[in-house]
Design goal:
Chain B: This is Nitrous oxidase accessory protein. Chain B: It comes from Pricia antarctica. Chain B: InterPro entries: Carb-bd_sugar_hydrolysis-dom, NosD_copper_fam, NosD_dom, Para_beta_helix_rpt-2, PbH1, Pectin_lyas_fold, Pectin_lyase_fold/virulence. The complex is a heterodimer. By secondary structure, chain A is mainly alpha-helical. Chain A contains twelve helices and no strands. In chain A, helix 3 (about 40-70) runs antiparallel to helix 5, helix 3 packs parallel to helix 6 (about 120-150) and helix 3 (about 40-70) crosses helix 7. Helices cover about 15% and strands about 35% of the residues of chain B. Chain B has five helices and 40 strands. The termini of chain B are far apart. The relative contact order of chain B is 0.05. The interface of A and B includes residues 189 and 215 of A.
């Protein structure tokens, strides 16, 4: 497995796209800090971008990589290598290189601008951790989609749809249901509904560290009570881990059964 | 001639008094051991000099114009038995005392110092601790409350009293006090023509400053910090609020300033920083908001309805989660020449005023008003999209609620372009 991981990792590290991705975040980090010159404010702006962009890139990149390296995969399958290690190795290679680009690309400018001297270090590391989780989750989901669909166009379509659903449509439905059922107590419902969408979960997790004053008002207190405590934080982290592990498990399971 | 006679007479009168007036020294080892004794033997305009020590007394009734001066902060310990000093005479001065352990009662408002129907008093440099009510003015007028320190131990609203409590008081000056951990830092009920200046009211259970039915009052340069809610101004007219700082009033229903049924007030140059709600407004008419700073609040302004003829000019709205939440479709208020940090317009003619109007009410704030739970969708992509579409063509928010001349630079900041031109 590690050999395959190493191959796909180096393959990706050498490829142009990782650099582009890395340079994009590097530029973004520098520009944000140059314009804001305030680490904690830059973290807020960054959150908006990470929440939207990281899942999108994870999805597209995952699907793309899977389809592109199909021939290589088939070649590997002919060798006496365990299937699970082939796919897991590829997955970890993609997710790992994307995460590395993200962490380094954003980390370098922030460290240069004195992150360690600022009190935003916890917010920032939380941001990077959720960013890494989102990368892993969406790469795993996209691998699943690619594995289940032989047709590239279909696979791409589903992948983009998945991103669109979780990033936008889910929130729309969520909002609608909140408004339709506004007569009922909705605190628990909204907590649970947030848990079921990794993007919402990451957003809420970061927001409660940043925009606390608004969220504290009214019902915000309920959310704060949940996410603000260590227990809530652990539960949300556990949810993110679950969101990562489940698609990976399905990936392995599916790859074992699939007839190539 | 008559004029000179008058002056001569006055001087005589003053001299006469000062000759008459004696100083009675009170200390645990003196002839006069208690303040009560001292008050009893004193005649009008005497001075009681109270030396350091602990005096276990309560119900001290001062019914003649005396000056009580504490040396090195003598302690009057009420031992939780009831009210400590009650003043019914005019012209009483209390200076440098420390009063502790005022009795808590659920039927009587025991106070550390109570002024009843008197005039021209002065309370200064007094320290009050472990109290129920601190300084209680009952139908008193023309008094000064200066540089006192009040520190309560209030935990809940029903078992605690107010730091400085005014009831039917007129022309009172409250300057430079520090009030903490009581129910309401300063409470005004039917108190007119009063000035509240340079006070620091913090960590109180309910309000930092509370107005009820009080008119023509001024409060300026005060700091209200970390209270249950900063300042509540209710059912009052002609209140002047200037250069105060409202900070970190956080909580589920907390705010920096609450305005309820207020007419003709002026709110100028205040700073609202990191409150859950900067100003909560309900039923106000003809209020001028000018040169205030709203920084990092959850809601800068939260309008709960029935506000007419208010003007908001030259304010800075910086990095609030919501600049304005508004619950009706009707707007009779003017927003003009404010600076909004979220303004995205441009200024082609470089006159410092944006060419595109700014709409401070977002659709999201409208939705949150309706269903508070939706706050969980704050800053999601979906919300940004519908906010944008609402901004382009307002459907739910009042379409005339806009700032037609949003500033490009913070109000109050120096304008370099103009400075260059004038040279």
């Amino acid at each position: 497995m590690f050999k395959i991981l190493k191959y796909s990792f180096y393959d990706l590290i050498r490829s142009r796209w990782s650099y582009v991705y890395f340079l994009f975040y590097l530029a973004l980090g520098f520009v944000l800090l140059f314009l804001n010159n305030d680490v904690s404010k830059a973290v807020i702006t960054l959150m908006n971008i990470i929440i939207v962009l990281v899942p999108l890139i994870g999805t597209i990149f995952g699907v793309m990589y899977f389809y592109n390296s199909k021939e290589f995969t088939e070649l590997l399958l002919a060798q006496p290598v365990k299937r699970s290690s082939i796919f897991l190795g590829q997955y970890l290679g993609v997710a790992g290189s994307l995460t590395l680009s993200l962490v380094l690309g954003l980390g370098i400018p922030f460290v240069l601008y004195g992150l360690f001297r600022s009190d935003a270090i916890f917010d920032f590391s939380l941001l990077l951790v959720t960013g890494a989780f989102l990368t892993m989750i969406f790469t795993a989901l996209s691998f699943n989609i690619a594995l289940s669909n032989e047709n590239k166009i279909k696979g791409f379509g589903y992948a983009v749809l998945l991103w669109l659903f979780l990033a936008v449509i889910y929130d729309g439905l969520f909002l609608m249901s909140l408004i339709v059922f506004e007569e009922y107590p909705l605190d628990t419902f909204s907590l649970v509904a947030t848990m079921f969408n990794p993007i919402d979960l990451s957003r809420t997790l970061i927001l409660l560290k940043l925009d606390i004053s608004a969220l504290l008002g009214y019902t915000g207190a309920v959310f704060k009570q949940f996410f603000g405590t260590n227990q809530g934080f652990l539960v949300s982290m556990l949810m993110l881990v679950l969101w990562t592990v489940l698609p990976i498990w399905r990936l392995i399971h599916k790859s074992k059964q699939k007839d190539f | 001639m008559k004029y000179w006679q008058g002056i001569f007479f006055m001087v005589c009168l003053c001299l006469g008094h000062s000759l008459h007036a004696q100083t009675i020294t009170i200390c645990p080892s003196c002839e006069t051991k208690s303040i009560k004794e001292g008050v009893e033997i004193a005649v009008d305009y005497d001075t009681l000099l109270i030396k350091a020590g602990t005096y276990k007394e309560f119900n001290i009734h001062i019914d003649k114009p005396l000056t009580l001066i504490g040396q090195n902060l003598p302690i009057i310990d009420g031992e939780d038995k009831g009210e400590i000093i009650t003043v019914t005479a005019d012209g009483v001065i209390l200076d440098g005392l420390k009063i502790i352990n005022v009795g808590t009662s659920y039927t009587k408002d025991h106070a550390a110092i109570r002024m009843i129907k008197n005039k021209n008093f002065e309370i200064r440099n007094v320290v009050l601790e472990k109290l129920f009510f601190g300084i209680y003015l009952e139908k008193a007028s023309h008094g000064k409350i200066i540089n006192n320190k009040i520190k309560g131990d209030a935990v809940d609203e029903f078992g605690s009293g107010n730091g400085i409590h005014l009831w039917y008081a007129k022309n009172i000056e409250i300057i430079g006090n520090e009030i903490r951990n009581v129910r309401d830092g300063i409470y005004f009920e039917f108190a007119d023509n009063c000035t509240v200046k340079n006070n620091h009211s913090h960590n109180n259970v309910r309000y930092g400053l509370h107005f009820m039915f009080s008119n023509h009052d001024v409060y300026e340069n005060n700091v209200f910090e970390n209270n249950g809610a900063g300042v509540a101004v209710m059912f009052s007219k002609f209140i002047d609020m200037r250069h105060n700082i409202f900070r970190e009033n956080w909580g589920t229903a907390s705010y920096g300033l609450l305005l309820k049924e207020i007419n003709d007030a002026e709110i100028i140059g205040n700073t609202f920083e990191e409150n859950t709600i900067g100003i909560s407004i309900e039923g106000t008419n003809r209020i001028a908001y000018n040169k205030n700073n709203f920084i990092g609040n959850g809601w800068a302004l939260r309008v709960r309805g029935a506000i007419y003829g208010n003007t908001f000019t030259n304010n800075n709205f910086l990095y609030n989660s919501f600049d304005l939440s508004y619950n009706s479709n009707l707007n009779d208020n003017v927003f003009d020449k404010n600076y909004w940090s979220e303004y995205t317009g441009y200024d082609l003619d470089k006159d410092g005023i944006g060419d595109v109007p700014y709409r401070p009410v977002k659709l999201f704030s409208y939705i949150v008003n309706r269903t508070p739970e939706t706050i969980i969708l704050l800053r999601s992509l979906f919300m940004d999209i519908i906010d944008f579409s609402e901004k382009v063509s307002p459907v739910f928010t009042p379409d005339n609620l806009l700032d037609a001349n949003p500033l490009m630079k913070k109000a109050g900041s120096k304008e370099p372009q103009l400075a260059v031109k004038s040279k």
